[in-house]
Fold this protein.
Amino acid sequence: MNKNNYHTHTTRCYHASGKDEEYVKAAIKAGIKELGFSDHTPWHYDSSFKATMRMPENQLDGYIESILSLKEKYKDQISILVGLECEYFEKYIPWLEKMLKDKQIDYIILGNHYYETDELHDYFGTPVDEFHLKAYVDQCIQAIDSGLYSYIAHPDLVYYDQDSKLYQEEMSRLCAYAKEKDMPLEFNLLGFMTHRHYPNNAFWKIASHYKNKAIIGFDAHSPDALLKDDIYQQAFNYLSSLDVELIDTIQTLKK
């Protein structure tokens, strides 16, 4: 298997550090063959809302230009893709589809962080109720059906009692659908390294039961995150112990 990463952020999201080129240099040093940048997508809100964890629309062109410049500069050393981490906000999907085509984005990954839109401040990553747990899975399924996303980032981000019957049922619903539609699930190294509630054994036992495709994502918010080979190896060994299909490349958008 090649060591690739398609989950890489930049300072434009307000919670990452390091220059774009430093990520590329770190990836080359780490032996990564293909590096995908996937900073949090801007959205064209129909309100005056200003997000604090994603680039504004006016930074998107600069982001793309920077990555394309690095792609050309380092073309003999590493493959680089221009991507975005996007939620599934149903009301804004027409805008997203047009933007992806207009900007010639290589791929997007699903980061299902908020219920309906972040304008509501309804975050799935803090303890949620039964309604939001089911809504999380519903939104993931809608995203899968859209055909836009290459994989589901941190699919176990939704924060609910992992030992409960409902969690088992809903995550089984998600994993079964992802298996049916051939949608890979990400094992998130940032959460793994910082001991968040994801990735968690309960979810990955379910993924193993359904024999899902799994991909390792660094979720890098600093260049040195790409150099954590010990963490990568721990994740690789863990996934290898499960009955999942570990993959190292993604499907890109049709242009």
Notes: The first strand starts at residue 34 and ends at 40. The CA atoms of residues 162 and 202 lie 6 Å apart. The chain has a mean pLDDT of 98. The two ends are 27 Å apart (CA to CA).
